[in-house]
Amino acid sequence: MATFARRCKPCVMANKNTLFLSTRKGLIVCSRRSGNWAFSGSHFDGIPVTFTYEDERHGAWWACLDHGHWGVKLHRSFDRGASWEEVSAPAYPEGAEIQEGVPATTKYIWSMQHGGHSHPRRLWLGTIPGGLFRSEDGGDNFQLVESLWNHPTRPKQWFGGGFDHPGIHSIVVDPRDEDHLYIGISVAGVLESRDGGQSWAFRNKGLRADFLPDPFAEVSHDPHLLLAAPSNPDVLWQQNHCGIFVSHDGGANWKDVSEAEGPARFGFAIAVAEDDPHQAWVAPAVSDEVRTAVGNSLCICRTDDGGKSWTAQRKGLPQQFCYDIVYRHALAATGEDVVFGTTTGNVFFSQDRGDSWAVLSHYLPMVHAVGFGG
Predict the structure, then answer these.
(1) Is the pLDDT reported for residue 373 higher than 50?
(2) What percent of the chain has pLDDT over 90?
(3) What is Dmax (Cα atoms) for the chain?
(4) pLDDT at position 186 over 60
């Protein structure tokens, strides 16, 4: 009864009718038609698209590309993909080094977030090897945030997880104070700034890093994805290398809410309901060593009570001989809709918060990220 009352209260969420699928072979765009999702276009065919983002302030689309031999590229569109323009990708200043003797160059664009309505031209962008960039001119130019890059812990205590070097995969801007932000770094942890990126403090208390000599060290944690609850930004969630964690005090303290016996433990992706800070979804995998679906059976796990309990949602998902996993940016939720894409090119969507699932496609390239647009 409590769940019914929560969902039926007045809600200001607007339907989002565009879906971005960033894949190993290009950007695929879907549109909602007759209540369901259908393919409506593709862009950058054959080129890996690592992340796609719509700036809700004015509707600009951004596509982050990884050409391999030709390197990182950044494109934007002001006409919903009818045309694209290439923008100079963020570049590290001359002399910047990852470590002594190792020059810093942009290897990967992993995250993007607008700077809020009080900073109408500000954009944040996260990269591998661990640099945060800021633009104050709508993305025409990006500058390295040197206060973070020069943090004394970076050279010795940040390191790569699945990549050779650290990466910023999560940027969270507080809508109540848009100079207040958090970033998630793999591997370093969560950092908070309250002054628009001029200074930073770690927010890793309560996290556990089983791969460290001291699992509760201040630095060198591995959040896989960090999100704030849209309805209460003081509630932060992360899918972590060592479990699922939630904070109810803006990251000052974290609590492990993983299942002791069930599948909701290890994984990469997490999504949080727009209208309920206690409702979240994760996409389980076996472990860091065995990155396959738990029991070769695909499920999404949802909590409705802040992680006290989890329900494995399986209706409509393959339950045998399944090896799919979901990357950190490849699960998204808005309103009643939840969508995820997998490493084997399967995309599933739900119109009832994961209670049941339908197939969008079985035949896509590896899905790096999914995201909703207007």
Answers:
(1) yes
(2) 93
(3) 61
(4) yes
Residue 101 has a CB neighbour count (10 Å cut-off) of: 6
Please give the average per-residue pLDDT across 79-89, as a whole number. 97
Q: How much is the pLDDT for 162?
A: 84
3-state secondary structure of 59: coil
pLDDT for residue 139 is more than 70: yes
Task: Fill in the DSSP letter of residue 8.
Answer: H
Q: Which residues contact 4 (CB under 8 A, 6 or more apart)?
A: none
Handedness of CA 341, 342, 344, 348 (dihedral sign): negative
Strand, helix or coil for residue 172: strand
Structure tokens at 174: 């507080």
**How many other C-beta atoms lie within 10 A of the C-beta of residue 312?**
17
Tell me the two tokens of residue 202.
Answer: 């770690």
CA–CA dist 139, 134 (Å, integer): 8
Listing DSSP states for 272-327 in one string gives E-SS-TT-EEEEE-S-SSS-S-GGG---EEEESSTTS--EEE-TTS--SS------
Q: Are 264 and 281 in contact (CB under 8 A)?
A: no
Cα distances from 321 to residues 285, 327, 356, in angstroms, run 14, 19, 20
- Reported as a pLDDT band with limits 50, 70 and 90, residue 218 is very high
Cα(21)–Cα(367) distance, integer angstroms: 7
Q: Centre a 10 Å sphere on the Cβ of residue 129 and count the other Cβ atoms it contains.
A: 25
Residue 20 and residue 77 in contact, taking contact as beta carbons nearer than 8 Å: no
C-alpha–C-alpha distance, residues 41 and 20, integer Å: 10
- Percent of the chain clearing pLDDT 70 (strictly above): 96
Bridge-partner residues for 293, per DSSP?
A: none
Which of 241, 127, 253, 242 lies closest to 192, judged by CA? 253
